[in-house]
Amino acid sequence: MLSQTLGTVFALLGLANYSWAQASQNVSLPQISSSPSNASQILDPRLASLSIEFSYLPSFGGNLSNPNLLTKELLQRLVERTGVGPDIRPGGISVDSSMYQANASALELDESPAGGIYRTVFGPAYYESFAVFPNTSRYVIDVNLGNNTIQYARDEIQAAIDYIGWDKIYALELGNEADQYPPGSRPSTWASSDYTAQFLGWTSILSRNLSLPPAIFQAGSFAIDPTPTAPMTTVSIIQEGVDSTNEVKVFSQHTYQYSTCDPVRNAIATLPNLINHQNITAYLDLWKPQIAAAHSIGKEFVVGEYSSVSCSGKENVTDTFGQALWLADTVLYGAFLSISRMYLHQGATLVLQSGNQANSAGFSWYDLWYPVPSDRYGSARASPSFVAYLLITEAVGSSGQSQISLIPTPSNPQLAVYAIWDNSILSRMAILNLSTRNVTSSQDAGEVVVDLSEYVSGSGATVKRMTAPGLDSKDSSLVTWAGQSYENGTASGMEVIETLQGGSVTVKGSEGVLVFL
Known about the structure:
This protein is an alpha/beta fold. The protein is built from twelve helices and 23 strands. It has two domains: about 140 residues, Sandwich (Immunoglobulin-like), CATH 2.60.40; about 350 residues, Glycosidases (TIM Barrel), CATH 3.20.20.80. About 25% of the residues lie in helices and about 25% in strands. The strands form five sheets. Strands 3-2-12-11-10-9-8-7 form an eight-stranded parallel β-sheet. Strands 15, 16, 17, 19, 20, 21 and 23 form a seven-stranded antiparallel β-sheet that branches. The protein is globular, with a radius of gyration of 22 Å. It holds the Pfam family Glyco_hydro_79C.
């Protein structure tokens, strides 16, 4: 979660650059290399993956007799673009009070009067929810570490092996955000070395008892931003020997740039602060040492859970088209930093997260889609942010050989330009204009014209556009990717693929395009 100090810094950055949003400019890009000299690692086609709160997975997946067709259709739209389904991590805070019982129903929740889930019991029918996900999706199995009872973890891993199978299990994860256990399930003295010791002890026992394959665990899943005062990081547990027994497959940390967990952070969780390219890149840069540490020992680094505003988002901020712009810039920049996958969290407000959080019980304001009808959101439907995952997956593509690089535009600080190479050939460019254009603004507010003539050969360049009536738009039927909306999971309207005119592309404020060169 974002510290108050960092949040204030990012907020000030946002205010400093906000005035640029009202200026229309012609933009010439710096020289882009014909080969990806400073580009990322090869992009995983599952870059845009999903984390789903453990206790709400049946809401998103349904069961064999009543599968959630909205979920099925939306994820199929991603498969169509990359050839594979996103990785799925059923996890989050509710996993640390979970218990598998062979004679239990699919899901039994013990809740407080305020709606806080303090225990989740699940049985074999829970795994029927997995059938709705694409056949090519893989799973990160998050199991109970918080209760400090290894038998719970063992039973949950065995159930996953029995009902999902090793062909679908990518990694096993112990607990959720262990750096935030104190003062609840661990003493106030609980430290990084304690986590590392317990990880080594548990993984050794579980591997032996369940005959697990080597290097199968996802380590970390820490919540607190990796500043010098962070209690646990990828760097610290590697230094403490967390992979000394070769049980680690991948390292994970979580990112939430803003928060509604308390009034101080809630006050700066605004659209102008959120939709700001400099804020986004400065925040993710904090993870560079963690990424480097994982790579130094030959392991992947992932953001195993993320969204823009923790404690379940914020009304009129994360349920707007602005969240789509934030997602696109965040994930593409994360890919440039060589983060392998980013798991966008889906779920509902967990009122036990904080004593003074802003949100009450209900599906999270940041969810990519609302899986079932509810009093808070009305009908089940895609949120305005879903189109971001369409832009991202088309930017990544299906070649399995893509790399990405951020192209600096210092005179246009709210313009994010990403070049994508396939097999070392410059193939696509994603351009995100994060200057502010609200529903009530002039529709050419913040408009830029980007000159791409140097990179276009012949007349074959085309453009797909991610747009909405404004940054603050909340109507999914008016939010489009290439002219089509996806409110009900399928494309509505005629597809619009533009032809690049005169080698330049016009991008309005609060809009994004993907140019196919």
